[in-house]
Design brief:
Blueprint (H helix, E strand, L loop, with lengths): L1 H13 L10 H14 L10 H11 L2 E2 L5 H4 L7 H14 L16 H7 L3 E2 L15 H8 E12 L4 H4 L9 E10 L3 E9 L9 E11 L2 E12 L28 E4 L9 E10 L2 E12 L2 E2 L6 E3 L9 H5 L4 E14 L3 E16 L9 E15 L2 E9 L4 E12 L2 E10 L21 E12 L2 E12 L10 E15 L2 E18 L2 E19 L4 E14 L4 E17 L2 E12 L6 E5 L7 E5 L2 E14 L2 E11 L5 E2 L6 E2 L2 E12 L1
Parallel strand pairs: 1-2
Antiparallel strand pairs: 3-4, 3-33, 4-5, 5-6, 6-7, 7-8, 7-9, 9-10, 10-13, 11-12, 13-14, 14-15, 15-16, 16-17, 17-18, 18-19, 19-20, 20-21, 21-22, 22-23, 23-24, 24-25, 25-26, 26-29, 27-28, 29-30, 30-33, 31-32
C-alpha cells in the first residue's frame, strides 16, 4: 500500500504544470562526477565527506580569474597540466568573462570542461554607484547571508532483529539535521545533529563550528569541530580520501585544504577545539588544538583501550557503555613556504595524548598513550613536470610517498608513485594513497598510471605492485600482490558514450586449505561494459553489464558472478529530477560480490555489495517546489528469493525482502 501511495504521488508531481526558471543542472553534473570518483570503492558505506567536498565547492566555487594551480587542483579531475592550461589562457587573453569560455581552450576536452564548470565561477567587478546610500545593518545581513537547512529521515520498512527482541533503546527512525549559515563568503556557522535507527536521542550526535576565512593575515580560523588536511595524507587527513579508481592519474595526488570546518555525520576522526592558518607571504603558519572524546572498549582490569568502534552506533546497552569512554588531546602546527606556483614545502609536527593507553594484540599494533609525528611535504613544478610527496617520522620509523607526474602533451599524462610504509609505523589520523583504504602500515608499493586521450576516446591504464613485508593481523607471513586496470571511454556517436573495462587483482592471503592455514594466491578478475545514451535533453539511458571471476590457487576454489542494471534519468522540467534503476545480480557467494554505487539523496553516498541472487530496484524523486525549497524521496528494495533471512546480528531481517524509504527537505535562502 505504501508503495502505491508513493508511486501515485510521483505521478501527480510529474504531471504538475508548475515550472520555474531556475535550473538545477549543477546537481546532476555533481552526481555524474561522484559516480566516476566512488564507483571503484570496495566499502559498503562510503563517507559522506566526499559529497561535502563537492557541495562546498559548488557553494564556494573557484574563481577562474584569481585561482592558482593549487586551488584549481582541488576540483575533481583537474591535474596540474589542466590547471596550467587555464592559467596560460588567462595570462594570454586576459580575465575570463564567463565560465563557458573554458570551452574555447582547445587543450582541454569538452567532456572535461563539462565536469569542471559546476565548481568554478567568474568574479564580477565591484562597481559603486555615485550617491548610492549605504545599506543599514539589517539590509546588509539579509543581502549578504545565505542559510542552508537539511532534514533527512530514513526508515526501514522491515523490522530488524534488534527491535523485535527489544535490544535497541530507541525508535526505528534514522534522522539527520544540518543548519549552515554563511555571511559575506567569509563567515560560516554550522550545527548538525544525527540519530541512527535504534538510538534514543534525536541529537545523539551533535557537531558545531564557527568558521572565518580571508580576513587579512588570517587565511582561515575555526572554533568547534574541524578537519585537518596536510601534505599527502601521511600525517593528517580527513576520514576519507580517493584511492585507485577509474581515473588513473587524478587520485594519486591529494590537494590539501589545511584547516576546514567539519560538516559530516561520521562520528570519528575529527578534531574538536580551535585551529587557524595565518599568511605572511611567502610563509604561512597553521596551529591547532583539540580535545575530543571517542568510543572505546576498555579493559575492565587495566583500563587499557582494546578497540575503538567506528560505526558510531549507540543502540544497545553494550554499545551505550562504549560511548565516549576515552579522550584524545591533540596539538601542533605547520609552517609552509610557497614561491608562486613553482614550489611549496611544509613542515608539520603534532602530538596526541590519550587518557587511556592502547593494548596491542600483535607486535605491530598501536600501543601506548602518547604519539608524536613530524612530517615534511613538498610540491615542485618544473615546466610540464610535477614532483610531490611527503615523509613522516613517528619516533620509531619513517613512512614516505614520492610521486612524479608528467604531462607529455595536452592529451597524455603519466604518473608514477612509490610508497614505503614500515610495519612499525602507525598513523592515527592519516589517509594515504595505497592498497588498503588509507592504512599507511606494512606496505611497499609502486604505482604507474597513464591517461591518454586518443581520437577514439580516453584510455586509462594503471599497474600497481605492492607487498606487505611483515606478518600482520590478516596474514601470518609476508605477502605480495599486483593490480592491473584498463578502461576505454569513447563517444562513437554524439549522444552515445561507451565504457569498456578490464581489471585484474592478484593478492596473497591466508586461507584454510585441507584443514591447514596456508598462504595462497587469490585472483579477482572483473569485466565491465557500459552504454550511456542521451536520448534527449530530458532523458538519459544507462546500461551496465559486469562479470566477476574469483579464484584461489591450490584451493580448488573458483566462483563467479554477474550484475546487470538498467538506469533511467528523467528531467521533464527544470525543477524535477527522476531516477529509476533496476539491478539483476547473481554471485556464488560474497567472495564474488560486485559493488554497485548508486544515486541517493543529496549528501548521501551508497555503495552496496551485491551478492547471492536477486533483484534490487530504486526510484528517486527530487522536486524543486520553490527556488529555495527542494523535496527529495527515495524508495529502494532488495529481493533475494532463495534466502530466508537477510543481513546478520541485530540487523537481521526475517525474510527475503529489504526495503526502505528516505525523505529529505533542503531549504536555502
Amino acid at each position: 500500500m505504501k508503495i502505491l501511495i508513493f508511486i501515485s504521488v510521483i505521478f501527480l508531481i510529474i504531471n504538475s504544470q508548475n515550472l520555474f526558471s531556475q535550473t538545477d543542472t549543477n546537481y546532476i553534473k555533481a552526481e555524474d562526477v561522484l559516480d566516476e570518483l566512488v564507483e571503484e570503492s570496495q566499502e559498503d558505506e562510503v563517507s559522506s565527506d566526499l559529497y561535502d567536498i563537492l557541495e562546498n565547492l559548488m557553494q564556494n566555487p573557484v574563481d577562474l580569474n584569481t585561482a592558482v594551480i593549487s586551488e584549481f587542483q582541488k576540483i575533481p579531475f583537474i591535474d596540474f597540466s589542466v590547471a596550467e592550461q587555464i592559467i596560460n589562457h588567462r595570462n594570454k587573453y586576459g580575465l575570463f568573462f564567463s565560465v563557458n569560455e573554458l570551452y574555447s581552450i582547445r587543450e582541454i576536452p569538452a567532456d572535461l570542461t563539462k565536469k569542471i564548470i559546476p565548481f568554478v565561477n567568474v568574479s564580477a567587478p565591484i562597481v559603486s554607484t555615485p550617491g548610492e546610500e549605504e545599506e543599514d545593518l539589517f539590509e546588509s545581513l539579509s543581502s549578504s547571508s545565505k542559510i542552508y537547512f537539511r532534514n533527512r529521515v530514513t526508515n526501514d520498512l522491515q523490522t530488524r532483529k534488534g527491535f523485535l527482541e527489544n535490544k535497541f533503546e530507541g525508535s526505528e527512525i534514522d534522522m539527520y539535521n544540518r543548519l549552515m549559515v554563511k555571511y559575506d563568503k567569509n563567515y560560516q556557522f554550522g550545527i548538525l545533529t544525527e540519530k541512527d535507527a535504534g538510538e534514543k536521542e534525536f541529537n545523539e550526535f551533535t557537531s558545531a563550528h564557527l568558521f572565518a576565512k580571508d580576513l587579512g593575515y588570517i587565511k582561515n580560523l575555526v572554533l568547534g569541530d574541524y578537519y585537518l588536511e596536510f601534505g599527502q595524507g601521511l600525517a593528517l587527513w580527513n576520514a576519507y580520501g580517493f584511492s585507485k579508481g577509474a581515473d588513473a592519474v587524478y587520485p594519486v595526488k591529494k590537494s590539501e585544504r589545511k584547516i576546514i570546518p567539519y560538516t559530516s555525520a561520521s562520528e570519528n576522526n575529527f578534531f574538536r577545539g580551535a585551529a587557524g592558518t595565518f599568511d605572511y607571504e611567502p610563509f604561512s603558519v597553521s596551529v591547532f588544538y583539540s580535545k575530543n572524546k571517542f568510543d572505546a572498549n576498555l579493559d575492565e582490569t587495566t583500563g587499557e583501550i582494546l578497540s575503538n568502534p567506528l560505526d558510531g552506533l549507540h543502540r544497545t546497552e553494550s554499545e551505550i557503555q562504549k560511548r565516549k569512554t576515552a579522550e584524545e588531546t591533540t596539538f601542533g602546527g605547520r609552517i609552509d613556504f610557497a614561491k608562486e606556483d613553482l614550489f611549496r614545502v611544509g613542515v608539520l609536527h603534532y602530538r596526541s595524548k590519550f587518557d587511556h593507553p592502547f593494548q596491542p594484540s600483535t607486535v605491530f599494533d598501536i600501543s601506548g598513550d602518547e604519539f608524536n609525528y613530524t612530517s615534511a611535504a613538498y610540491d615542485l613544478y618544473i615546466e610540464n613536470i610535477n614532483l610531490f610527496g611527503e615523509g613522516v617520522y613517528n619516533g620509531t620509523s619513517v613512512a614516505s610517498i614520492n610521486n612524479f607526474q608528467i604531462s607529455l602533451s595536452s592529451n597524455l599524462q603519466f604518473v608514477s608513485s612509490i610508497r614505503s610504509y614500515p610495519a612499525n609505523f602507525i598513523n592515527i589520523h592519516g589517509f594515504s594513497f595505497g592498497e588498503r583504504s588509507g592504512a599507511a602500515q606494512n606496505e611497499f608499493g609502486i604505482y604507474n598510471g597513464l591517461k591518454w586521450r586518443l581520437p577514439i576516446g580516453t584510455l586509462n591504464l594503471y599497474y600497481d605492485q605492492f607487498k606487505f613485508p611483515n606478518a600482520s593481523f590478516d596474514n601470518p607471513l609476508p605477502t605480495d600482490g599486483n593490480e592491473f586496470f584498463a578502461e576505454l571511454t569513447s563517444k562513437p556517436f554524439s549522444k552515445v558514450e561507451t565504457r569498456v573495462r578490464y581489471k585484474k587483482e592478484r593478492k596473497e592471503l591466508e586461507f584454510i586449505i585441507n584443514n591447514e592455514n596456508l598462504i595462497a594466491e587469490r585472483n579477482r578478475e572483473n569485466i565491465r561494459g557500459e552504454v550511456i545514451y542521451e536520448i534527449s535533453k530530458s532523458l538519459r539511458w544507462k546500461s551496465r553489464f559486469e562479470y566477476n571471476i574469483y579464484s584461489v590457487k591450490d584451493a580448488e576454489l573458483a566462483e563467479n558472478g554477474f550484475l546487470f542494471f538498467q538506469d533511467l534519468r528523467y528531467v521533464p522540467t527544470s525543477n524535477l529530477n527522476l531516477y529509476v534503476r533496476i539491478v539483476f545480480f547473481r554471485t556464488d557467494s560474497f567472495n564474488s560480490a560486485l559493488y554497485e554505487y548508486e544515486n541517493d539523496l543529496t549528501g548521501v553516498l551508497t555503495n552496496i555489495a551485491m551478492f547471492g541472487e536477486g533483484i534490487r530496484w530504486y526510484i528517486i524523486l527530487r522536486y524543486k517546489i520553490l527556488p529555495y525549497l527542494v523535496l527529495s524521496c527515495k524508495y529502494s528494495e532488495t529481493y533475494k528469493p532463495k534466502e530466508k533471512t537477510l543481513s546478520s546480528g541485530d540487523s537481521e531481517i526475517n525474510g527475503n525482502l529489504d526495503n526502505r524509504i528516505n525523505f529529505q527537505v533542503d531549504l536555502s535562502f
